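Any chance you could type out a protein's amino acid sequence plus the matching backbone structure tokens because I've never seen that pairing?

——
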Amino acid sequence: MIPRKSSINRSTKETNVSVSVNLDGSGKTVINTGINFLDHLITAFGKHGMMDLKVDAKSNDNIEHHLIEDTAITLGLTIDKALGTRSGITRFSYASVPMDESIAEASVDLVKRPFWKLVLSIKRNNIEDISKEDLEHFFQSLLQNLNSCIHLTVKYGDNDHHKVEAAIKSLAVAFRIASSYDKKQKGIPSTKGSM
């Protein structure tokens, strides 16, 4: 099998972001964005997605929104690149992940047609060191740049931290299964013969 690894360095006047991924890793992560809760979420994504991730993100303009957005964009693009032609993968998956009183569900189709639907049900204006709108924008930017069809929904919960963490973990588990190789699958998993 071809190693499914990729690296992207994205530099703008606003940020410098470097992401490396090994989709067939063991969940090892080295994440440094300077934003604690963002580091925590990306670490959980790598750990439960069983992909090795290295993320180094620095702000050039000291605007947190730009750093969060560009980190998500680069992470999504790097994973999309690592998926390659997507030949031999399972393609579809679903995961439901609880975290205490909260539960989130992710449905994933790794077809190369970007569509996303996101419902995080966040109530507070800030969760840890990130604003509600920046957290939502992180997920939106990540899903959009994965070049896949993904529905991610927090079904219920009371604690916003738990909701967001359940969401990233359900996405990670669904992505891990969808991106895994299917021994019965020969070639591109589509009746079109192309993704």
